[in-house]
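Researcher: Next entry: Phosphohistidine phosphatase SixA (Pseudomonas laurentiana).
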Amino acid sequence: MKLWVLRHGEAEARATSDAERRLTEHGREQVLRSAAQLLGQPLQAVLASPYVRAQQTAMLVCDALSFDKPLITVPWLTPESGADQVIAELDKLGLEHVLLVSHQPLVGTLVGMLEQGHRREPQPMGTATLAELEGDWPLAGLMTLRSLSHP
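Model: Predicted structure:
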């Protein structure tokens, strides 16, 4: 399995709620630079948090890659979600090549947990940072971090 974990691009500092924060122009540019790292990858699905900035990030990536499958919005990719829940949901999907678009602290905890097997060393992930993991199963401690790209 190959799993890519992308943190959303830079978002505006304020909005009516955290979920409604939109990408800035700089954030859009960051996302497009990260999307370039995914060119030629055999993605089967793009899953994103329902928050506006993650939705915008995922749509920019899909457009840049000419990804022709629908974006899948899931409630278990919000900032408050747990890495354990994400791992369980990924296992249920049974897909081989997946991109997740989400937020800190979830993305750092998830990458650290998949690689290290615990939550004690979350991976630092700035806006639009893309992590590529590979392994036989999406289980804690059983995936290898192949690359970490910062825009």
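Model: Note for the record: The chain has four helices and six strands.
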